[in-house]
Amino acid sequence: MKMKKGEKMDKNKIVPKATLERYPVYLKALRHLRDLGMERVMSRELADYTGIEPTTIRRDFSFIGSLGKQGYGYDIVSLIEIFNIELGLNIDEKIILVGAGNLGRALLNYNVWENVVGEIVCAFDIEPHQNKFGIPVYHIDELEEKMPEDCRIAILAISTDVQKTVDKLVECGILGIVDFTHEHIMVPKTIIVKAVDVVSTIQEMVFETNKQKRL
Predict the structure, then answer these.
(1) Per-residue pLDDT tens digits for 56-104
(2) pTM above 0.85?
(3) Domains of the chain, with CATH numbers?
(4) Tens of pLDDT, residues 178-187
(5) What is the DSSP string of 142-184?
(6) Which tens digit of pLDDT belongs to each residue from 26-43?
């Protein structure tokens, strides 16, 4: 079923965090199916692409609205439109990287989040290069001058002057920071920070696997 003109996501519904984390997975699968020439998809077919149970998919989609029709499935283009507009999942998102060291270079090399989000359009470092993996790397002092227009998200992969750099990013209009620094940073309440802690994730995995062995 196609989205009706003016139809909006029910803002009164509280969407669980786990559901929100699955939405980008659905969006990637839907864009892939669209690129394959498919026009509609059943929840069981989408389950094959995502590894998520059909009942979970239908429940997750129910938070957005009445999107499907029994025996017909979901209109792929309309569903992508809903994710793009209502959930703000923009494939053209401009992202900057701050810190082009070992981790930063790995992220630049992996700058292929096809069908999910945007891409890293430039990087900043204390030792700039002409480019890395086709991406320009500017000196951190050029942040304000070289900041891409409408850029809202920065990936932080530095080890020194972290808070000073964060303050500078906020002044330049950054609204969201993906933080690889492992340092406590202070930001205004309007700024979103997502910390990526690989060590903690590994520790959680060790705990979970040990628990499985004891069962």
Answers:
(1) 999 998 887 766 566 678 889 988 888 877 666 656 688 999 999 989 9
(2) no
(3) 17-86 (1.10.10.10), 94-200 (3.40.50.720)
(4) 999 989 999 9
(5) GHHHHPPTT--EEEE--SSSHHHHHHHHHHTT--EEEE-S-S-
(6) 888 888 899 889 999 999
